[in-house]
Amino acid sequence: MLGLALADRPRGLIALGAHPDDIEIGCGGTLLSLAKRWPEIAVTVVVLTGSPMRQEEARTASELFLAGCQSTLRCFDFPDGRLPAQWGAVKEVLEDVATEVEADLILAPRVGDAHQDHRLVAELVRTVWRDQLVLGYEIPKYDGDVGQPNAYLPLSEATAREKVRLLSKAYRSQTQRDWWDEETFLGLARLRGMECRSRYAEAFELTKTVITW
Q1: What pTM, to 2 d.p., does this model score?
Q2: Of 82, 9, 76, which Cα lies nearest the Cα of 49?
Q3: Whole-number average pLDDT of the chain
């Protein structure tokens, strides 16, 4: 197994989600780790769908997961489950963000995600951000679409459990769903941890990287 360290603080981070809670489910541990290591990092969170109540939950989540960071939340009201029909408008939003926000690390859904909204965002990201490191996060779901990731961020047990605690604190409207519980989130994190010789981890799909010596 080859491990690579990110020695320099990213100039900025953009985290993209089709829905409120996508980002924190997919890479909440990564956000907590980055905020702890580089509290001065500028983070822009973009959520493309959601009712006013759900968008307020996303705001709470950003404050909890990025406490101490210079963070900005941008929420849009595209129709849930219908993003592919809004292809042009969604791409315009992402291009506006890319123009306005300086970042060299992008967190977004993975290309193979079974949900149409997630999948569209993943496909567009790679046409909008061509010179940045793009990490595609995974979201467990009924469709059973978890794949074979090729990039891992090990998480301490404390960070993994803090992620789960904050998820339920921020997204109270989701806690009654039959799949929303500690076992779901920690179970996937434990599996990914085993794959990278850690107790817990979050995993990503990395489609392209450029090596410089």
Answers
A1: 0.95
A2: 76
A3: 94
